Amino acid sequence: MERLQKVIARAGIASRRKAEQLILDGRVAVNGKVIDSLGTKVSATDRVAVDGVPLDKEKLVYYLFYKPVGVISSVKDDRGRRTVVDFFKQVPERIFPVGRLDYDTSGALLLTNDGALANRLMHPSYKFNKTYIAEVRPLPTAEQLSQLANGIHLEDGMTAKARVKLLSSNQEKRTASVQLTIHEGRNRQVRRMFSALHLHVCRLKRERYGFLDLKGLHPGEARELTAFEVKTLARETDTQK
């Protein structure tokens, strides 16, 4: 279920704020009934009309994207930088990224126009796992890896427990490759967790988003999810809460 004004805005009729005014003016109907107050939520099966004209419902689409470094995880950027949707100009639907990856982080990012699923995937109560590979310097100690696993105290609170694995180390360069799986989505969380332990992240990649991985994709490439993958995402977010 999504708020009525959001559905109208996503259909390209008006901005979210103007859509609210359309509702208050009594110009919107749901299943033939005029709605003139805010707060109404609608499902994909509800019939929405503005000034008697039915909204064109977009087909729901889902893409797994291998985001390169140097790309903004946004629909647009006021500084003119390249965004993830610039890689989907051939897609007619108005898609948006589910969550975000930092400008200097690469890896798995889901894009869709399914707002209900996106909200569930981003909600912390569903504990949807994301797995990262970080190249860090200097070499982390066993104690530091244990701290990462048990939670790090950041300025916005203690992080949840994580899964941590040391993949490789280079004694000469004093660098290590560390796999970190978390379910939270705080701003720059992975980098801040390492930084709190005085470990510098040289490179960071999200290699898995839940059960979805980047197999067969190169930076800047995407693939559409299969029907089975979409159903699995929906099922996992329905049962994990």
Automatic annotation (TrEMBL):
<dbReference type="InterPro" id="IPR020094">
    <property type="entry name" value="TruA/RsuA/RluB/E/F_N"/>
</dbReference>
<dbReference type="InterPro" id="IPR036986">
    <property type="entry name" value="S4_RNA-bd_sf"/>
</dbReference>
<dbReference type="GO" id="GO:0120159">
    <property type="term" value="F:rRNA pseudouridine synthase activity"/>
</dbReference>
<dbReference type="Pfam" id="PF00849">
    <property type="entry name" value="PseudoU_synth_2"/>
</dbReference>
<keyword id="KW-0413">Isomerase</keyword>
<protein>
    <recommendedName>
        <fullName>Pseudouridine synthase</fullName>
        <ecNumber>5.4.99.-</ecNumber>
    </recommendedName>
</protein>
<keyword id="KW-0456">Lyase</keyword>
<comment type="similarity">
    <text>Belongs to the pseudouridine synthase RsuA family.</text>
</comment>
<dbReference type="InterPro" id="IPR050343">
    <property type="entry name" value="RsuA_PseudoU_synthase"/>
</dbReference>
<dbReference type="Pfam" id="PF01479">
    <property type="entry name" value="S4"/>
</dbReference>
<dbReference type="InterPro" id="IPR000748">
    <property type="entry name" value="PsdUridine_synth_RsuA/RluB/E/F"/>
</dbReference>
<dbReference type="GO" id="GO:0016829">
    <property type="term" value="F:lyase activity"/>
</dbReference>
<dbReference type="GO" id="GO:0003723">
    <property type="term" value="F:RNA binding"/>
</dbReference>
<feature type="domain" description="RNA-binding S4">
    <location>
        <begin position="2"/>
        <end position="59"/>
    </location>
</feature>
<dbReference type="GO" id="GO:0000455">
    <property type="term" value="P:enzyme-directed rRNA pseudouridine synthesis"/>
</dbReference>
<keyword id="KW-0694">RNA-binding</keyword>
<dbReference type="InterPro" id="IPR020103">
    <property type="entry name" value="PsdUridine_synth_cat_dom_sf"/>
</dbReference>
<dbReference type="InterPro" id="IPR002942">
    <property type="entry name" value="S4_RNA-bd"/>
</dbReference>
<dbReference type="InterPro" id="IPR042092">
    <property type="entry name" value="PsdUridine_s_RsuA/RluB/E/F_cat"/>
</dbReference>
<dbReference type="GO" id="GO:0005829">
    <property type="term" value="C:cytosol"/>
</dbReference>
<dbReference type="InterPro" id="IPR018496">
    <property type="entry name" value="PsdUridine_synth_RsuA/RluB_CS"/>
</dbReference>
<dbReference type="InterPro" id="IPR006145">
    <property type="entry name" value="PsdUridine_synth_RsuA/RluA"/>
</dbReference>
